[in-house]
Each structure stands twice: as structure tokens, then as C-alpha cells.
Write a structure and sequence with these properties.
- The chain has about 550 residues and is of the alpha/beta class.
- It folds into two domains: about 10-15 and about 90-365, no CATH class; about 375-535, Gcn5-related N-acetyltransferase (GNAT) (Aminopeptidase, 3-Layer(aba) Sandwich), CATH 3.40.630.
- It has 17 helices and 17 strands.
- The protein has helices at about 40-50, 70-80, 100-105, 120-130, 150-155, 175-185, 215-220, 245-265, 275-300, 305-325, 330-350, 360-365, 385-395, 395-405, 435-440, 460-475, 490-500, and strands at about 30-35, 55-60, 85-90, 135-140, 145, 165-170, 195-200, 230-235, 370-375, 375-380, 410-420, 420-430, 445-455, 480-485, 505, 510-515, 525-535.
- It has a nine-stranded mixed sheet, with helices on both faces. Strands 10, 11, 12, 13, 14, 15, 16 and 17 form an eight-stranded mixed sheet that branches.
- Helix 8 packs across helix 10, helix 9 runs antiparallel to helix 10 and helix 9 packs across helix 11.
- It is elongated.
- The two termini are about 50 Å apart.
Length: about 550
């Protein structure tokens, strides 16, 4: 029989994994369950735009009943014009195809019911990703900051060998109220991976988030043990006061008892099904002793501000009081219902339609009229884009010619679109340069030409995003260097290219020609001189 007691760390359960220096897997979506306003989501929007991922914001109801989704999309799209956005105003509950979980029903109306919608949002995120065909998704809380976006890429690169990969959350530790107090009074207490910064393969996921505190820990389990879970990279949680309201500790206690009890069993080599009534009786007694010990330590701390001491004591007493209301057999019955809910969830996933558009998927999931979307993309233009390009940007001869060259395999015309409207473009020339100096010193190196963004959308990051996409396309084609030319008096463009790590070559300005479009639509080439910039394409 495993001796039940509190485990200050569960990190030994994690798989050892070494992420590649640069993750090569695409992140399809970043999913943010949120109860906050748009400013709290700008960090996630910047990450999504930089990584080429769709940002999905699942919004809790506004206290005054006002919809959040439309305001969030308006704010974020103004600051991050090239991020694809989906924002949903969450209803209190969802019907079919979302299962009715037995774990939720058994706690409904009791003092142990969790009155937040975090689990509902995360489960909805999984169903949406599965329906749309997003494979690699990242769950990110709205109070989590990821300083190095490459850490998210490294996390998803490990998903081929792991069920889930979390980032190590620093800054303010991600713990329960009781575990915060344990640490603050001198106890050893570590954190574990969780849903605040978690990458998963949505097309392979079999588990769900039950409506209980520490739902993310239960998501990581199968019926027996922890699934293969790894940790890589770092994220930072914004600080908050866990002791501000004793209701927080009271609301967390059942889920904290449940998850800490199961994981303590796993730490000692046990299995989930070994958590019988006798085990829970011992664990809950040990938990009670731990909380009483923390209370005594709190009383003896000399360097704690009196008001903070009273708040901590009130929270600990609230947790202890709730603990005394939880009989051991409740945990046995809950885990039995949790296993049955896993079967319901897997049946739901098997029956879920796939390859839907986001809009059709949201309607199928019961969210008609509750979502707002805004789409953007950078992709090679096709013949069907010509009329839209002409309407937005003019230059009929130029675009028709570049599309013809693209069809002949001599180049790639990349176009940036927002809600299907062209807002910018660049041309990647793959044929020998017209300029003799370029052919001599940079043979076979592709040339970026004619970067343009609509005037009203300049200085918004669109040009940089187009260039980044162009470089990625050239890497995909096996190129390791790129070259471009800049008019001698175009200092603004030169500054952009310098920020993007383009450097002047060693051979001075180059004599060239440029196309001029006359008012009557005719084009002609006129002599010109430009500076040449080059960049090595790593990876």
C-alpha cells in the first residue's frame, strides 16, 4: 500500500526530452481562454501574428452582459493586421456535440461545484481544432507571457513523441493557494506543467478537461498513469495575490485534493486505479495536517505584513474547512465518473465532422451568432486574384506579367490579404538577374522585387511579415541567400531591410532600370541606380 502524503514536486514524472534549437513544426492555432479585455490579449496576438498562427479567444460573459468578441477583434486587428482572429462569446453551457459530463453533474449544486468556464473553453478549443483540421495548437492563458516565441515552436516540435508539452512557467509561480502558502512559509514547493502554456496535438488528443480545479493535470492522465509529457522553454505568469479572497482557496480545495492525491500516488509508483477509499482517507488526513502546519508557520512568521498574514490565514482556514466537507468516497466516485466521461469524450471525437471551415465548425458546435472572425494570409497569388489585385493596387501590366512568370516557374508573386482584400505584395524572381553585376557576384541567388503595402496600412508590420514569408518560401525551395535592390533615395525602405538583417554588399551601387507606369497604363523602363542588400537565410 502506497503511503499517502503531500508531494512537493511531481517533476520526476515528466519525460526527458531535448527540443531542437529551432522548431520546424508549424503552430496552427493559439487558443486563449479569457475573462479579460482586449489589452490583456495583445501579447498573444503578437505571438500569433509572428508565428503565422490563428488566434482563438474564448471569452467569458461580460459582467454587464455586453459581448466581448467584437471589441476584442476590433482592438487586435487594428494593432496586428495580419493575424487571423476568431473570438467567441461563450454561453453558460454547450449542448451536443459537447458531451454532458458525469463529473460535472455529480458536483452540480454542491459546495464542490466549480463555477468557472475554463474547462468548457478548453474543451471547445479542442473540438474546434479537431473540426477545422488544426493539428498543433497551444493553449495560452491571458496572464502568461512568452518572451521567446521560438520556445512555442520547440514545444510543438516535440509533439511527435509526446502527448503534450508544457513551457516552464516562471515569474509568479503557478500553484494553488495552499501550495503558495506552503512555499511562502518555508516549505519546498515546485510547479508542474499546466494548461497556462501547453502544446498539444489536437488531432491525436483523447482526453478532456473536467470542470474542476487542476483540470489540466487530469487532462494529462490516461486511466492508469501520466501520458508522455515533456517540458521545454519558459513563460512568465503575471503576479497576483492568491490570498486576496478566501473563496479562491475554498473553490480550489476539492480539485487540489484530487489532483495532488492522484499525482502523489503516481510519484510513488502507484496507478490511478490504486486510489481507493482507504488511500483517500489517508491522503486527506495528511492534507489536513499539512494545512494546519502551514497555519502554525504563518502565525510565527515575523517578517510578514500583518494584513497579508490575516489574508493568508483566512484562505488557509477556508481551504481546511472545505477539506473537512469532502468524504473519501467522493474522490473514488469522481474518478469512476471521470473514466466514464473519458469514454463519452472519445465517442464525441470519433463522431465529430472534420475539414470544416471555422465558421461552419462554430455553428456545428452551437455557437451561431456568438463569434466574430477576421482573416488574413500571405500566399502565392493565383490567376483568380488578378481582378482583386487590380482593384486594390492597380498596375495591370505588372501583375499580369508576374503571374505569367510565376506560371512558367520563373518566380513567385506573394500577396498579403486581409479578409480576402489584397493589402501588399512582393515578387520573388528566380530567373537570372538583368544586372550583369548581380549575375557575376551572386549567380543563382533569388531577387526580391517590388515590395509594396497600401499607404494607409504602412508601419503596421505588414511589410516585415511579407518579407518573412518570402524568406521562408525561399528556404523551402533550398535557397540560402537572397538579394534585393533599393533606390538611393529610399531611406525608409533601407531602414526596414536593415532591421530585417539585410546588409549592403561590397560592390557599391548598381546600374539598373525600373518600370514606370504612365497615366495611360503603358509601362516603360527607365535607367536607375540602386543599392544592393543581401541576407543569408539560416535554417
Amino acid at each position: 500500500m502506497v503511503e499517502p502524503s503531500h508531494s512537493p514536486s511531481h517533476r520526476q514524472l515528466l519525460s526527458r526530452a531535448q527540443a531542437p534549437e529551432m522548431g520546424g513544426r508549424r503552430i496552427d492555432a493559439i487558443i486563449v481562454p479569457s475573462a479579460r479585455s482586449a489589452p490583456y490579449l495583445r501579447h498573444a496576438a503578437g505571438l500569433a501574428e509572428g508565428l503565422g498562427a490563428t488566434l482563438v479567444v474564448l471569452c467569458s460573459p461580460h459582467p454587464r452582459g455586453r459581448a466581448r468578441a467584437r471589441d476584442i477583434v476590433a482592438d487586435l486587428s487594428d494593432r496586428y493586421p495580419l493575424v487571423g482572429l476568431v473570438a467567441v462569446d461563450m454561453p453558460p453551457a454547450l449542448d451536443h456535440p459537447m458531451p454532458r459530463f458525469e463529473t460535472s453533474k455529480m458536483l452540480a449544486g454542491t459546495r464542490f461545484e466549480r463555477r468557472t468556464d475554463t474547462s468548457l473553453k478548453r474543451n471547445l478549443g479542442l473540438l474546434l481544432a479537431r473540426s477545422v483540421g488544426w493539428h498543433r495548437v497551444v493553449f495560452l492563458d491571458d496572464d502568461i507571457h512568452v518572451e521567446d516565441p521560438a520556445d512555442l515552436c520547440r514545444a510543438v516540435s516535440l509533439l511527435d513523441r509526446h502527448y503534450a508539452v508544457g513551457l516552464s512557467v516562471g515569474g509568479y509561480p503557478d500553484n494553488s493557494v495552499v501550495c503558495h502558502a506552503h512555499r511562502d512559509t518555508g516549505g519546498w514547493q515546485e510547479t508542474f506543467v499546466g494548461g497556462g502554456a501547453l502544446a498539444v496535438r489536437a488531432d491525436r488528443v483523447e482526453s478532456f478537461f473536467p470542470n474542476v480545479y487542476n483540470e489540466d493535470w487530469l487532462f494529462l492522465l490516461d486511466d492508469v498513469r501520466l501520458r508522455p509529457v515533456a517540458e521545454t522553454g519558459t513563460a512568465k505568469q503575471q503576479p497576483y495575490d492568491p490570498f486576496a479572497n478566501p473563496e479562491r482557496a475554498r473553490g480550489e480545495e476539492f480539485g487540489d485534493d484530487l489532483a495532488e492525491g492522484v499525482f502523489a500516488l503516481l510519484d510513488r509508483g502507484g496507478r490511478v486505479q490504486d486510489a481507493d477509499e482507504q488511500y483517500w482517507r489517508g491522503f486527506l488526513a495528511a492534507r489536513g495536517k499539512l494545512i494546519l502546519d502551514i497555519i502554525e508557520r504563518t502565525k510565527k512568521l515575523d517578517d510578514m505584513e500583518p494584513g497579508q498574514r490575516q489574508r493568508m490565514l483566512a484562505s488557509l482556514r477556508a481551504a481546511y474547512g472545505r477539506l473537512q466537507c469532502a468524504p473519501p468516497d467522493l474522490f473514488v466516485r469522481y474518478l469512476r465518473a471521470w473514466r466514464a466521461d473519458g469514454t463519452r469524450w472519445r465517442r464525441c471525437l470519433a463522431e465529430l465532422p472534420t475539414d470544416l471551415s471555422v465558421e461552419k465548425a462554430l455553428v456545428h458546435l452551437g455557437l451561431a451568432g456568438r463569434y466574430t472572425t477576421r482573416w488574413s494570409e500571405i500566399r502565392p497569388a493565383g490567376p483568380g486574384d488578378l481582378s482583386h489585385l487590380l482593384s486594390a493596387l492597380g498596375q495591370e501590366h505588372y501583375f499580369a506579367d508576374r503571374l505569367d512568370r510565376q506560371a512558367a516557374g520563373r518566380g513567385v508573386l506573394l500577396v498579403a490579404l486581409i479578409d480576402s482584400r489584397p493589402v501588399g505584395h512582393v515578387y520573388l524572381s528566380l530567373e537570372p538577374a538583368e544586372e550583369e553585376d548581380l549575375r557575376r557576384y551572386l549567380p543563382g541567388v533569388p531577387l526580391l522585387c517590388h515590395l509594396e503595402v497600401l499607404p494607409e496600412l504602412r508601419s503596421r508590420g505588414i511589410g516585415s511579415a511579407i518579407m518573412t514569408t518570402a524568406e521562408a518560401e525561399l528556404r523551402r525551395r533550398g535557397h540560402r541567400m537572397v538579394v534585393l535592390g533599393v533606390d538611393l533615395d529610399n531611406h525608409r525602405a533601407a531602414e526596414l531591410y536593415h532591421r530585417l538583417r539585410y546588409r549592403p554588399w561590397a560592390y557599391g551601387p548598381v546600374e539598373t532600370t525600373r518600370e514606370v507606369v504612365r497615366p495611360d497604363g503603358r509601362t516603360e523602363r527607365v535607367p536607375d541606380k540602386c543599392r544592393i542588400f543581401v541576407k543569408k537565410l539560416s535554417g
